[in-house]
Design brief:
DUF5955
């Protein structure tokens, strides 16, 4: 499937989607009142995803690694589930999950 730049922006629409999803999750995480042990891990990986998106088309294995770390660190916080799902969908735009053997 061919990806085209958003008209006038020159940015890959997958990158735009990733940046929007990461931004939403960062906002929701910042506004979530509960502290949990791996919150800093999630915040660090969201910052890494944002930096990868800003730099252009990110490396798919690195995207997936960050997604796994984020999901693992905040996966039990149900209030953030929708935003985590959006990040997962944005990561999958760069290539579906690896095949299972």
């Amino acid at each position: 499937m061919e990806q085209r730049a958003v008209a006038g922006s020159g940015e890959d629409p997958r990158v735009s989607e990733l940046r929007a999803a990461v931004s939403r999750l960062r906002r929701e995480l910042a506004g979530h009142p509960a502290e949990f042990p791996d919150r800093a891990v999630a915040e660090d990986e969201l910052a890494a995803l944002d930096a990868m998106a800003i730099s252009g088309v990110p490396e798919v294995p690195r995207l997936r690694r960050s997604l796994l770390l984020i999901a693992g660190s905040i996966g039990s916080v149900s209030a953030l589930a929708g935003a985590v799902t959006d990040v997962r969908k944005a990561v999958e735009l760069f290539g579906g999950p690896p095949g299972r053997y």
